[in-house]
Amino acid sequence: MSKKIIFKGNPDGCYLPFEPDLLQLDLQEPKSTEPPSDSRTKQIEELAKLSIKETRNFCFDSFTENDWAELCLRNSSFLYHPESYCLNNEARQAIVLMIHFSNKKIRIGFNCAKHLLKILTCEIVSYDIETALPIKIGVSKKDIEDILAPFQQEQKTVFDFLSSGDTQGILSDSLQKEAAELAISNLTELQNLLAIYRPGPLQYFIDYKNNSPCKLLLAQDIAEETRGVLLYHDQCELALQRMTGCTPEEAEFFRQDNSGLLKGKSYELLLQRIAKHQNVSLDDVWWNYYNPWGCYARYSVPRKYFQKRAYIDYLRTLKKLRMLPKM
């Protein structure tokens, strides 16, 4: 029994003469079987021909993880493009795997590469880039570790340096001591550190450092990723949805209107919404819901902005350590 698998960049797919039980990974990507638009493919190909300096003013906001994977396969230096901050560590590792197999003339999909990060041993079906014929390859956890070893060493070197406290020219003077104390080890921790230690009140830095429980009990699980602090706008808005049952759009409006020292026109309405949804008195709303939420909301920040700042600091560190690939 043959199985058709659609590979991004190979819209016609390929029919694989192997039994389905050999397909231990879900290689279908994307779910839609429609091929990428010609204009999108051409855009990626044109970008891949440019140097990173020449793309400085290009808007990458509409790029998806799959688009970045395609771009990096054509020009691996784009993995270090300042605008690739939207990629998390899993996506970066998956792209490293894709580049490795592509250099061996084997094409694997982005979702497949992500799955390879989680397996012990398996066989996957892909296709040979030169012949477009199906090919079956066996992959073990040791193979994956060997492929990713240089990438892992790069990250370790960068974060060991950032945690040394001697990062003049990369982190501000006020941040260097805290970076060393926290022993940051990944981009997310660096991002959180920059976000909570931005210019302005630092009242929650100690809570973050000590991983104290979130003061808004209803949102403790939301705050787990940021050590008990509702640090980002999206976290505060999600907490507000729980408190009021409002829509995401309403939560964004309420946060913007109530996150300053001077409460907005929606203040009274918000208190009533919380009281009704939680079935508590207005006094309870103030002390147990609105007040702790409002303190977090006042100092919360946009997540995406600090993702970019963290990645730029990562690239600066690579450059200072002279590890940044030539672009």
General description of the model:
- The protein has 327 residues and is mainly α.
- It has two domains: 3-155, no CATH class; 199-300, no CATH class.
- It has helices at residues 38-49, 65-74, 89-103, 110-116, 141-162, 173-182, 187-196, 205-210, 233-244, 248-258, 267-278, 282-299, 303-320; strands spanning 3-7, 10-16, 106-107, 121-128, 134-140.
- It is built from 13 helices and five strands.
- Strands 3-4-5 form a three-stranded antiparallel sheet.
- Strand 4 and strand 5 (134-140) form a beta hairpin.
- The model is unreliable at 1-34 (pLDDT under 50).
- Helix 9 runs antiparallel to helix 12.
Provide the β-strand percentage band: 5-15%
Number of helices: 13
* First and last CA, distance: 46 Å
The tally of strands reads 5
Q: What structural class should be given to the helix and strand makeup?
A: mainly alpha
Q: Biggest sheet, strands in spatial order? A: 3-4-5
Radius of gyration in whole Å, from Cα?
Answer: 24 Å
Task: State the helical fraction.
Answer: 40-55%
Shape call: globular
Order of SSEs, N→C? EEHHHEHEEHHHHHHHHH
Uncertain runs are 1-34
Biggest beta sheet summary: 3 strands, antiparallel
Number of domains: 2
Mean pLDDT: 84
Which tags fit this structure?
two-stranded antiparallel ribbon, three-stranded antiparallel β-sheet, 2 domains, 5 strands, 13 helices, mainly alpha
